[in-house]
Amino acid sequence: MIFFREVRYKNIMATGQPFTVIRLDAAPTTLFTGKNGSGKSTFIEAITFALFNQAYRKINKPALVNTINNKALLCEIDFDIGPTKYTVRRGIKPAVFEIEIDGKVRDSVPGTDDQKWLEEVVLGMNFKTFCQTVIIGNATYTPFMQLSTPNRRDFVEDLLDIRIYGLMTDILKKKVSDAKQRIKDIEDELRVQSSKIDVQKSYIQTLHDDRERKAAQAREKIAASQLLIEQANKDMDAFVGQRDSLMEKAEDSTGAAERMKKLKPLASKLVENVTKLREEIAFFEEHDDCPVCKQMINDEFKSSAIEERNTKVLHLKDGSLKLREQIDATQERLDEIFELNQSIRRLDQDIADCVSRIRVEQRVVDRLQAELSVEQQITANVDHEENKLKSLAAAAIQMTEAKTAATEDKFYLDLQALMLKDTGIKANVIKQYVPIMNKMINKYLNALDFFASFNLDENFSEVIKSRNRDVLQYESFSEGEKLKIDLSILFTWIAIAKMKNTVSTNLLIFDEVTDAGLDNESSGHIVGILKDLAKTAHVFVISHHPELYADKFDRHIKFAKVNNYSLIVD
What we know:
By secondary structure, the chain is of the alpha/beta class. It has helices at about 40-50, 115-125, 125-135, 150-160, 165-250, 255-285, 300-420, 425-445, 480-500, 520-535, 545-550, and strands at about 1-10, 20-25, 30-35, 75-80, 85-90, 95-100, 105, 135, 455, 460-465, 470, 505-510, 540-545, 555-560, 565-570.
């Protein structure tokens, strides 16, 4: 519990340089009175400015500074939380913000928001919560019965701390929207992934088709080349057989050539010898004397020599004839051998052509075998692409699972949103509290001598019935009676707030909300209720009508404007 002890302030609004000091724990009930502008409500501004750096009413903070002195605004408030004593000090011109703990000013921690630390760690509440649970004033208070139905609901949701469900609903709406977008994104990704899978399948099928087509073409070409090689080998074998046969027929080519080599010189020699012999015969026939020795050649010798030589010529001619026959026979054999060699050379060319054809076709086969080997590599590429297809399919499965999970998340978010609607959890909470609220309102109405049954339904529309069960309208009551209804509802909200809110203080301030339309008897009833509230908090009432309360409060503080400054007067 926060136990407020004292507030001190100067140069704020109409307050001058001397501190105005108000003990907050001096009496159970305290009445503030004074004329308009005398400074009765300034102490509320001092409290909210000191604690929250905000004006209570809707004015700018610079407007809080006293317009005469125009400087040195300073507000201080003391309070205890358990055994720890705090003082918060805040000012303008110069700017001041200090938090004193057990007499020692707290050092500001770099990177820490001191105001946030004060609200969250020390006070446990913010400005809005403080104004809802500690201060009830004209600046922020509109009678419940003057609110529209939606605003009534908002007010009660704030009071019951179930407005959070509305905030949760807003958060859930964002989450649902995000979930929808997530599902849409996943569906888009799935469509893209499906397209990738289709393209990959088509590509793999193309690889398969190309591989089979190219392999079939290669095998066909290999088969054709192998047939050509086989035919070339057969042709070559035939040519080699023919060549071998011809080689056998021409195996004496060397011997014939050698014979011809020997026979031709012999033939030439025979011709030469015959020529010589004929020359000698001619000599003997033409000469009677020896041209060398000048001796006469006798006829017998000449005849003998000529006969001898003619006989030799005949022998040589006969030998030459036989030699010619041998030469002609050898030449005929050589011609045959030449023809055989020509045929052998043609066969050799044919064999070379066959070898060349075999080599060419073998190179074709080798190239095609290499292409088939490349096709084997393409098969490996197909395996790689099929692995890619499996990866794409696995990713698609993951996306499908993610979509399922996102859809489930959205389902639960939709379920939570349904629960958080006005017809869900909030309706159940309100349904539980409405009877309590009605009971309290009627209790306070009875305490204020207003004998009518007042009930709010779960939509916070009122049903007011007189003792004879006539249904009445709020607007049909007098201003005093309306005020009794408004105050009964207000006191109910205070009680509910204390029941619901975890923040507890010793301070409760009413700023001009209990004045209008009350007579002395009614004011007495209200004071009775306030004294009941004062059992758990120090109650401050700011009023324009001291005559209603002057003798009914434990303490009475009067404010007046003196020389344009607000002062506490006797």
